[in-house]
Design goal:
The chain is globular, with a radius of gyration of 17 Å. It has one domain: Ribosomal Protein L22, Chain A (Alpha-Beta Complex), CATH 3.90.470.20. The strands form three sheets. The chain has a four-stranded mixed β-sheet, covered by helices on one side. Strands 4-8-7 form a three-stranded antiparallel β-sheet, covered by helices on one side. Strands 5-6 form a two-stranded antiparallel ribbon. By secondary structure, it is an alpha+beta fold. The longest helix has 22 residues. The protein binds coenzyme A (COA). Coenzyme A (COA) binds next to helix 3, strand 2, strand 4 and helix 6.
Amino acid sequence: MAADQLLDGECQVWWARPDQVSDDLLLAAVPEAEQRRAGRYRQRLDRQRSLTGAWLLRTAVAAITGDRPSEVLLDRTCADCGQQHGRPRLPASVGVEVSVSHAGDRVAVALTRLGEVGVDVEFAPLPGHFDHELAENILSPRELSIVERSGDPGADFRRLWVRKEALLKATGHGLRMPMSRIEVSPAADPPALVAWPLDIPVDQVRLATLDPGPRHHAAVAVLTGATMTVRELDAALLL
Ligand SMILES: CC(C)(COP(=O)(O)OP(=O)(O)OC[C@H]1O[C@@H](n2cnc3c(N)ncnc32)[C@H](O)[C@@H]1OP(=O)(O)O)[C@@H](O)C(=O)NCCC(=O)NCCS
C-alpha cells in the first residue's frame, strides 16, 4: 500500500526526528509566515521541532492532495484571540483532519478522514522518575491511586497523560480544560475514554497508543464512533 494513500477508516501518524530534514527542504516547504511563527519558541530545539512539524504536516498532506507542500492551505486561527497559533486545519473541502505534536526527539503528525484528531507525544528526560505533584494536577483521584500502586508509576502516568492531551487536542480545548476532569482507562488496559464533562458520548471517541520509541510516550484520539486502524509511518518515506 502506498504511504500516500489515506484510507477511509485509518488514522495515519507520521514520525520525524527534529534533525531529520535539511534546512533547505524545511525552508522550501514552509512559507515565511510559518517560519516566523516557529520563531516564537525561545529555545532553538523547540523552534526546530515546530518547523519540522510544519514541514511534516505540509508534506504528508501534499502527498495525499497532490499539491506542493508550500501551497497547502492551512488555517491556524486561535479560538481565543484569532492569531495564527491555534490548531491547524485544512479547508473543509479536503475532508482530512490533522494534528501535530513535538517533544524530545520526536515530531508527530496525525491525519484522518474519520473526524477531528489529536496527537500527543511526551518525552521522559528521567525515565524512572515520577512527578507526583504534576500527576495530581493531571490525573483524577482514582487514576492517581492506580498509578501510585503500579510497578512503574512514572511511565504509567505518562501513558495516561498522552491519552488525555490527545483527547483535548482532538476537541481543540487543549489545556483550557483541566486534564483531571477527564478519566481514561488504566495504563495496562486498552486505551479508552471513560468519562469527561463534554456532550460527546464516550463511545464516539477512539483512542490508540502509539510507538514513538524509547523514553517517549504518545497517543492519538479521533472523534468518531467508527472502527479505526492506525498506521505509523517514518518521514524518511517522504524525503
Ligand atoms: C494545544 C496544546 C495543548 C499543545 O501543548 P504542548 O504539549 O505544548 O505541545 P504539542 O507539541 O503537543 O502540540 C503543539 C501543537 O499543537 C497545535 N495546537 C495549538 N493549539 C491547539 C489546540 N487548541 N488544539 C489542538 N492543537 C493545537 C499546534 O500545531 C502546535 O504546534 P506548533 O505550534 O509547532 O504548530 C497547548 O498549546 C494549548 O493548550 N493551547 C490552547 C490554549 C492556548 O494556548 N490558548 C492561547 C490563548 S491566546
